[in-house]
Give the backbone structure.
Amino acid sequence: MKSLCYHDRRKRLLLVVLSLSLLNSFWIINFYISILSISSSQDVYVKPLTRLIYNLSFLNDTQDFRLLVNLSNFSFVMNNKRCDSISELFMVVFVHSAPKHYHNRQTIRQTWGQETNLVNDPFRVVFLIGKAQDQSVQLALEEENHIHRDIIQGNFIDSYRNLTYKYVMGLKWVTYFCRHVKYVFKTDDDIFVNIFQLVKYLKDSFGTTPTGGLVVCYLIKKPFVKRSQRSKWHVSFTEYPWKYYPPYCSGWAVLMSPDVIFSLYIQSSRVPYFWVDDVHVSGTLVKKLGVSHVDLTDTMTINRADIARWLGSNVSNLPPFFGHPDVDRETIYALWTKTLLYYNIIETHW
Ligand SMILES: *[C@@H]1O[C@H](CO)[C@@H](O)[C@H](O)[C@H]1NC(C)=O
Ligand SMILES: *[C@@H]1O[C@H](CO)[C@@H](O)[C@H](O)[C@H]1NC(C)=O
Ligand SMILES: *[C@@H]1O[C@H](CO)[C@@H](O)[C@H](O)[C@H]1NC(C)=O
Ligand SMILES: *[C@@H]1O[C@H](CO)[C@@H](O)[C@H](O)[C@H]1NC(C)=O
Ligand SMILES: *[C@@H]1O[C@H](CO)[C@@H](O)[C@H](O)[C@H]1NC(C)=O
Ligand SMILES: *[C@@H]1O[C@H](CO)[C@@H](O)[C@H](O)[C@H]1NC(C)=O
């Protein structure tokens, strides 16, 4: 991926430079991206599968709305129908967050998650949160939501043993409130995303509208079940009797087509709850659908050293697709500032 983009860059840069005289800086990024997409549309990385068959008649069933896996009294404490106002929505991003992570959410809102980043391919970002056990945290969340209108909160307690409820709430929310979207991206609140590269990758690989059956992620291929009592993720034999999990996606970057979301949501109330959310949703449920993962690790690996090297290098090198997981907020700001510089590089040289 990296070398591929690098080779064509001189040609692309020339194209962009020729077009620049009419543009102000606000348009540069989007324009540059659309040029990149056209000039490399022949680079198809993966053959998409066919669309899954699903039946959405449950949407007229009030009982389904109250159901979340095995919770029969589910409700949204906060809901923002962010997708409603826009008919040609390219992507929706649901970000797993925790009640107290205000600063992480602000970082995303101020960097890659700004909806004005992409003018030609509109996207929306929502934050998924469970119920805060501390009343003052809940009040702060309500204030935050009053300002930003981007929090989706469920009435289950926010805790790591309840993370699968959060993931399924994301599936449910997209199914109920954002069905017309082209791509769904699931991530965490401590991740840097090169949103420009992400859109380009999706269009180049799967088109402006995916055929269907897409689950694209950094795949964990033969995951063994952690049994050590010291691990936060340790699982007992009663909870999960087998030695290995099915292959599943690292939770910090999962791309899916909407048909996968609907089908996963339908399965979510038919398969017993298992609390390791990534394993359950992107492993067990995906396997049940018979969908194969597309592994991003083969196309683009990222690691701490690469990220650090890029940050230290001059601005003419292609920014990383994602930051590594658990990146701190200062690094996210630094990565973002430099990413903007990269996409504006023509302007600096002008
Ligand atoms: C969808 O499911 C409902 C209820 O199970 C059923 O009545 C209906 O015929 C199904 N529709 C299709 C197209 O299969
Ligand atoms: C729900 O009901 C309405 C009106 O009865 C109907 O037009 C719509 O197609 C139904 N939706 C689904 C998903 O079955
Ligand atoms: C369901 O939840 C609502 C609040 O979300 C609560 O008022 C009600 O008592 C609950 N009902 C049951 C049966 O748990
Ligand atoms: C998960 O959420 C449910 C519903 O709010 C709650 O009853 C349960 O105690 C929570 N579990 C944990 C481990 O927090
Ligand atoms: C849901 O399933 C989990 C796992 O089996 C269980 O621990 C929990 O008590 C169940 N919750 C309800 C409300 O049935
Ligand atoms: C940036 O670095 C590359 C090699 O990594 C070098 O060829 C290029 O001249 C440098 N550009 C600037 C503006 O320093």
